[in-house]
Design brief:
This protein has helices at about 15-20, 55-65, 70-80, 85-90, 125-130, 140-145, 170-185, 185-195, 205-215, and strands at about 1-10, 35-45, 45-55, 95-100, 110-120, 150-155, 160-165, 215. The protein is an alpha+beta fold and about 230 residues long. The protein has two domains: about 1-95, 2-Layer Sandwich (Alpha-Beta Plaits); about 95-215, Alpha-Beta Plaits, CATH 3.30.70. It has an eight-stranded antiparallel β-sheet with strand order 5-7-6-4-1-3-2-8. Strand 2 (about 35-45) and strand 3 form a beta hairpin. Helix 1 runs antiparallel to helix 3 and helix 5 runs antiparallel to helix 8 (about 185-195). The two termini are about 25 Å apart. The relative contact order is 0.18. This is SchA/CurD domain-containing protein. It comes from Streptomyces sparsogenes DSM 40356.
Amino acid sequence: MERVALGLPVEPGNETRVARLLRRLPAVPAGEARTETVATFTAPRRVLHIADTTGGLDGLVADLTAHPDVAAGLRELCGMPHRLSAASYLIRARLTRWAHYARPYPARLTVRRRALLYPVRPGKGEELRRLLAAGVAPGTSQQLASALISSTIFARQDLVVRFWEATADPAEELDNIARVVPRSGLGAKLNRLLDVEQDLTTDAGFRAFFTGCAMSPVPGAGAWARP
């Protein structure tokens, strides 16, 4: 299956409603689903929706727009122009996958999914993508590195997000990252590329940045039956 990500701009206060709208897929017989929602996240004025699909972007968009309320919902909640169809709008919202790492893992493990939305300085998206595509920061503990199941950089121009799956406890993960990144040279590079008030070469500054830019996960809304 292909992993596809959509990054939608949202009118303030409507983020959770849009996320739930995107998580409503048509009910199909077991084994016939071509789209499976992986995760949906919100941030102020932004929704990130990630799905695995056998039909690529077109298949995902077809499943999402099959619901009769989607077009009206996108117009009301996202400010979608009336000249665009829901399908055209969602296709334009696609985020390109620029870097991806994944490894198999036992089904018994509890995997946590997280996403970080980077506040990119205008025109710095491409440089940030290249920096993030380099992978795990030097000095990352073996325990944390081995807990990483997958990591993907999705982007469109200056909209850049990292989505990752890991078995690590979130607090332990942040403790390790906040010790490593500021001292590795990455903190100084991020200072130049990101529009942040914090100093990312310090533990406290990086913690504040990471916590503030972490996106909020939205639970599923269930399937609906086609009329």
